[in-house]
Amino acid sequence: MQNLYLDQARLDHLRIKVDNSEGKTERLSAWARQTKDLPVVELELDFVRFSIKNHRTTAQQIGACRDAGDQELFTGDPLGDRAQNAQYKILQGLSGWEEMKGDLKRRKQQDSAVVTADGILVNGNRRAAGLRSLIQEGLLEFGYIRCVVLPADTSADEIRNLETELQVNPDLKRPYSWINEGLLIEELLQENDMNFQLVSNKTRIPLRDIRQMYDEIVQVNILVGLSEDTRLHMDFENNQAAFTEMTKYIKNKSGKEREVVQDAYMVGTLMDVPYRDLRHFRRKDPDTYIIKEIKDREALDDLTDFLSESGESEINGEDESGESEIDDVLTGILGGGDGGGTGEDGGKENLPTRRLLLLVAKSTKLEAIPLSNGATIDPADLKTHLNQAFLDASNEAKEQHEDDTVVNAPIMRLESAISDMQRARESLSKARAIGEWDEDKYKTLVEVAEEELSRVKSSVKE
């Protein structure tokens, strides 16, 4: 795809800079074309522009648009002061800002930035922001930035591939946040017809990791969608472990088990329940423990009534056709349902945990939460009580799992032993064909196994 948005005046300015650079070049190994030695020039810092299509800051830009009440904050006039200043503020808020700026101050610019032919930064946005900050502190010697200049005929696809090579592959110097990396992987997949292997090749990220990153960002998208913008992607920056554990568990699950585990993790995450406690909900019936603990709290009586209702359509998240609200969100994200919202019998489930998720996801810190019976719940009180209910439910589920493990341990160990002996017998002929085979040791172990089997038999009650 040709880049149709080059600014001619800026293009002319930079061309003059290149012509006056006395043929200075620098090798850009990540550049896909055969000619990798490209012009390098020093540009006035106030000439270069931050890349608004910066995948390190996608989630932060979404938040900035919401805070400004302007969805075109970055797209209306990307090179204008308003968009550029907003992007500068975001770059200042990225992790490691002070360390990076301090390094620039001590050692000056070490690596060249990369710009398009009209001076848009493809790589080096954080360094340019750091230099800008140093100038604002009165250090005028930082007024220029050294840049490798891409050809004027560089396509949008080439720019994307170069950014991916420079910033996304495992050798990058400053890793993306997992949220922004997931959003980029999602975008790359959509642009490449959901070809996971192709995206893996482009980013040099293992295929299994690409799939996992996509699964995680899809679940974040679902939760953000259910919240109707009361939550943003970056609100879950510290919750990667929870999304990782949840997505791995539900990946091959279906029906009610998938739903209730997904609900438990999402509600627990919204209520700031540590992921180490949420992991005890990776079982078929976490809703049993959660709802029991909610019912045991007098302060949540109104919520208990709400969760036990058969429900009006506007309350239980279903329209007249029976389609659940979470299915609507999934359809918007995935282009179709993924099995969520469907019970084991093929019908729609009216699960209390799903109703709880739909209620909590839309709640804000400031507004009372209305229930169907006219009652309201203070969001701070709800979070306090639900957090404790989830912790208690988690402990109960953990103890039950430990009890189940103790009860079933003898049978499970016998099943494993039988399986191992069958494999030993099946592999015997191949082992005997190898010169190092020890028949005497094999015979001794069979005798030990016979003795142990006799003891096991004697332990059987008549």
What does this structure look like?
The chain is mainly alpha-helical. It has three domains: 8-160, no CATH class; 267-400, no CATH class; 404-458, no CATH class. Helix content is 56%, strand content 6%. It contains 20 helices and seven strands. The chain has a five-stranded mixed beta sheet with strand order 1-2-5-3-4, sandwiched between helices. The protein has a two-stranded antiparallel sheet with strand order 6-7. A hairpin with a 5-residue loop joins β3 (113-115) and β4. α7 crosses α9. The longest helix is centred in the last third of the chain and has 48 residues, at 379-426. The protein is flat and about 100 Å long. The termini are far apart. 33% of the residues are buried. Residues 310-323 and 336-349 have low confidence and may be disordered.
Low-pLDDT runs:
310-323, 336-349
Structural class: mainly alpha
Note the overall shape.
flat
Estimated radius of gyration: 29 Å
* DSSP summary: helix tally: 20
List SSEs in N-to-C order: HEEHHHEEHEHHHHHHHHHHHHEEHHH
Distance between the termini: 78 Å
Q: Considering DSSP H and I runs of 4 or more, what fraction of the residues is helical?
A: 55-70%
Mean pLDDT: 85
Widest sheet, order of strands: 1-2-5-3-4
